[in-house]
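User: quick one, fold this
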Amino acid sequence: MEGTVRVRFAPSPTGMLHIGGLRTALFNYLFAKGHPGGVFVLRIEDTDRSRYVEEAEEDIVNSLVWAGMDFDEGPGKPGKFGPYRQSERKDIYEDYAEQLVEQGNAYYAFDTTEELDQMRERLQKSGNPSPKYDAITRMSMKNSLTLPQEEVERKLEEGEEYVIRLKVPRRETIRFEDEIRGFVSFESKGLDDQVLLKSDGMPTYHLANVVDDHLMEITHVIRGEEWLSSAPKHILMYEYFGWEPPKMAHLPLIMSPSGGKLSKRKAETEGIPINTRDYIEQKFEPEALVNFLAYLGWSPGDDSEIHSLEELTEMFSLDRVSKGGAVFDYKKLIWYNEHYLREKPAEQLYPKIRTIAEEHGITPDKAYMLEIIPLMKERVSKIEDFITQGKFFFEDPEEYEEQAKKKWKDDSAELLEAYLEKLEDIDDKYFKADTLKSNLKEVIDAHDVGFGKLMMPLRIATTGMGHGPDLFPSLELLGKETTIRRIQRAVEELG
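Assistant:
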């Protein structure tokens, strides 16, 4: 079908899916799904076998599915453009590399690693800080442009190791229009004669990427800014093959809050999880992460901030993606997570919370848990906080938070004992939040003290913490016997 938008997310399985990779996938997904019949392809770029990580592909697929970005074609979802792993397409690339050699746009290079090192050393000594294998240096190297034809043929016949390099013109301006940055131009003298086919017969990223994007009929290449410097080599190859290049869009870098690119090291020092798997393990709401990532370098042009994946699909366009870097604001992500937790009904949250409770050795009663969830919703940032901060709903506090103990004053025990007398007189069936509150008011009036003087010790005694959900409905849920037992113990322990 003419005019169908086809995009691809093409990660390398060299490690777990980075959060920046998930954002690239998201922008591709939103762009594809925002066009009628748009197709989102997952292609695994596994040509670098030395850095291949066994479980990385599974992690990439799991991450996309978790985030709600199911791909239309890819490993395990065959379309007519497969296979979708580059390691399974090896023979295809060889033919195209040979075609470029025959056309005079590429050449065989027989240089050994030592010879390449010597060339770089020689050039550095003569004052070239970043030596390259290019239009100038290629003429002093061991390749099919400098060796006699017979010798080249002999080397090939004898199975001598070689690579195929792209023959980059010496003086040419390479210009293309980027959907985000406008017109971009590069001088060819700044480019090296890129290796296209390695000595093991595997293609490099550059050749495989161009050939696959063409054969898979990809219409738009949306990828990170770090690939911008490779784009001119890709444009040259499209020109040499006589193919129409796809439209290109290079997304802004994700920046660290302290400035500079969000590297693994920076993320670690700033407490930002770097891989998608970390967000899954830390039980973030997938909708929150997706909503947050969509705003990393894109905005809808108004003040709105909360949008589902479906809404983002309708709103997204490349012309609203910024050129400048986008700062990863972890606090903002937490804000999104809190929002999505509050939006979900208790029934929907319960299965996840039950699983977390069981991991903590607690088997909650469903009806009881469904009463706790609304009480705690306004207080939690992540779903496991329902259990870690709400543990007092299930078991007596074993110890009291250090910070909270500082708020236990000389008259705390006396006030609590006065309150205890009131509680003991309440009939079990009238042990309700409003009764508990009015009783507390009577005690503080009788002792002529402020609300906090009794409220804080009561919270510490019954929950072990100096903060938490609304106290009186919490005590109503705990019930008379538990509340009294905990107060008596705190009076003994804290005096």
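User: anything notable?
Assistant: Residues 344-393 form a domain with the Helicase, Ruva Protein; domain 3 fold (CATH 1.10.8).
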